[in-house]
Amino acid sequence: MKNFFTTLSNIWKIEDLRVRIINTLLFLLIYRVGSYVILPGVDPASLQHSQTAKEGLLGLLNMFAGGSFARASIFALGVMPYISASIVVQLLGIAVPYFAKLQKEGESGRNKLNQWTRYLTIAITALQAIGYVRSQIVQSAISPVMGQGLFTITSVFVLTAGTLFVMWLGEKITDKGIGNGISLIIMVGIIAQLPAAIVDEFNSKVISPNGGGPLLFIVEMVALIAVVMFTILVVQGTRKVAVQYAKRIVGNKQYGGVRQYIPLKVNAAGVMPIIFAQALMFIPTTISSFFPSVASNSVMIALSTYTSWQHNLLFAILIILFTYFYTAITVNPKQMSDDMKRNGGFIPGVTPGDATSNFIDDVISKITLPGAIFLAIIAIIPAIANMVHINSTFARFFGGTSLIILVGVVLDTLQQIESHLLMRHYDGLMKTGRVKGRTTVPTAAGTVPPAI
């Protein structure tokens, strides 16, 4: 405990770090206050969609938005349109030569990609806002003063402005705060749902006469901690590849001649395979909504049921496939080999050039399989938790996208705080080792070193 207070004292002594942390907290407070500002023309007392917005994909979006989606807030769409635009721009960098060229132009290229991302964010937000207003806000919740048409137009403008403001807050946190702003906004939205979920689970297990008692609730909390620890292992797992650098004499100084390591991530794809797989898993539900006659089909019912073994098996297979796919398009062994050769480095026992590229590709292929399986297990744990009668809201914290984002963002933020401490010759956050951060939210320039 003494070391904990000493670390807090050291953090407070560093003016730049103290200001950044305070700025971060203030920006996040603005976001949380704004999430409770209801859209103009909506009668909160008559809002009927709050319960339906807590299930399935809508429940996931509501969690990322910190409950704003169910409250019909001006921040109802959160940063998800921005993340969608970032993913599209990132994929365009692979398929379109113009965007691939921008990715290689350094700072100027990143600025252009960010500009494209902002334009695309506006378009995506406007389309999603129309769908949100028409499908999630029923006629009875609209004030009689405003007609349906006027309400839709004003709401689209307000929701688009709200998303752009949240995006601006995220960029300000990144510039003037600590950590990645967009990731922190998503993390705060997810954590905001945790206290209520724990209270609901406590009431259902302890207060309710047929809930199972306090022992069962304690077992669930221990299981949650174990899942978090397992997720940290998956996120942090690396395979170190030894690299030897040749000696170079420049003037009177010697450079190189040392052995270093390339840390290849076991889960190099991050949370993206789960996001892609989830998008595909909602296709059966979408088809059933357009073709009611198909909805009664046993296969469609099984694939649309969150807790069915068919749904979870297909979900796990898709995650494994997308993990290989996303790792293949984000990790380039050829470029790693060329950069290593250019800097006078080589892997002991492996010839520089194509042999090195093939060696790295082989190592990545071998470690990606266990990483993909572990990721699939984490993704289906919430469904398993729901099947053993854990509250659906609380079950989402047992795995899936939300837990991986939480773990990645927290580790990355702690790593940045530790870097500030070490630069000022203070001890790090832990005496037994260093915090290794990793975020999971992609941006236009690539995956940030992590919202969906």
TrEMBL record:
<keyword id="KW-0811">Translocation</keyword>
<comment type="subunit">
    <text>Component of the Sec protein translocase complex. Heterotrimer consisting of SecY, SecE and SecG subunits. The heterotrimers can form oligomers, although 1 heterotrimer is thought to be able to translocate proteins. Interacts with the ribosome. Interacts with SecDF, and other proteins may be involved. Interacts with SecA.</text>
</comment>
<feature type="transmembrane region" description="Helical">
    <location>
        <begin position="394"/>
        <end position="414"/>
    </location>
</feature>
<dbReference type="Pfam" id="PF00344">
    <property type="entry name" value="SecY"/>
</dbReference>
<feature type="transmembrane region" description="Helical">
    <location>
        <begin position="211"/>
        <end position="235"/>
    </location>
</feature>
<keyword id="KW-0813">Transport</keyword>
<keyword id="KW-0653">Protein transport</keyword>
<feature type="transmembrane region" description="Helical">
    <location>
        <begin position="119"/>
        <end position="137"/>
    </location>
</feature>
<feature type="transmembrane region" description="Helical">
    <location>
        <begin position="181"/>
        <end position="199"/>
    </location>
</feature>
<feature type="transmembrane region" description="Helical">
    <location>
        <begin position="269"/>
        <end position="291"/>
    </location>
</feature>
<keyword id="KW-0812">Transmembrane</keyword>
<dbReference type="InterPro" id="IPR030659">
    <property type="entry name" value="SecY_CS"/>
</dbReference>
<dbReference type="InterPro" id="IPR026593">
    <property type="entry name" value="SecY"/>
</dbReference>
<feature type="transmembrane region" description="Helical">
    <location>
        <begin position="21"/>
        <end position="39"/>
    </location>
</feature>
<protein>
    <recommendedName>
        <fullName>Protein translocase subunit SecY</fullName>
    </recommendedName>
</protein>
<feature type="transmembrane region" description="Helical">
    <location>
        <begin position="149"/>
        <end position="169"/>
    </location>
</feature>
<comment type="similarity">
    <text>Belongs to the SecY/SEC61-alpha family.</text>
</comment>
<dbReference type="GO" id="GO:0065002">
    <property type="term" value="P:intracellular protein transmembrane transport"/>
</dbReference>
<feature type="transmembrane region" description="Helical">
    <location>
        <begin position="74"/>
        <end position="99"/>
    </location>
</feature>
<comment type="function">
    <text>The central subunit of the protein translocation channel SecYEG. Consists of two halves formed by TMs 1-5 and 6-10. These two domains form a lateral gate at the front which open onto the bilayer between TMs 2 and 7, and are clamped together by SecE at the back. The channel is closed by both a pore ring composed of hydrophobic SecY resides and a short helix (helix 2A) on the extracellular side of the membrane which forms a plug. The plug probably moves laterally to allow the channel to open. The ring and the pore may move independently.</text>
</comment>
<feature type="transmembrane region" description="Helical">
    <location>
        <begin position="367"/>
        <end position="388"/>
    </location>
</feature>
<dbReference type="GO" id="GO:0006605">
    <property type="term" value="P:protein targeting"/>
</dbReference>
<keyword id="KW-1133">Transmembrane helix</keyword>
<feature type="transmembrane region" description="Helical">
    <location>
        <begin position="311"/>
        <end position="332"/>
    </location>
</feature>
<dbReference type="GO" id="GO:0043952">
    <property type="term" value="P:protein transport by the Sec complex"/>
</dbReference>
<dbReference type="InterPro" id="IPR023201">
    <property type="entry name" value="SecY_dom_sf"/>
</dbReference>
<keyword id="KW-0472">Membrane</keyword>
<keyword id="KW-1003">Cell membrane</keyword>
<dbReference type="GO" id="GO:0005886">
    <property type="term" value="C:plasma membrane"/>
</dbReference>
<dbReference type="InterPro" id="IPR002208">
    <property type="entry name" value="SecY/SEC61-alpha"/>
</dbReference>
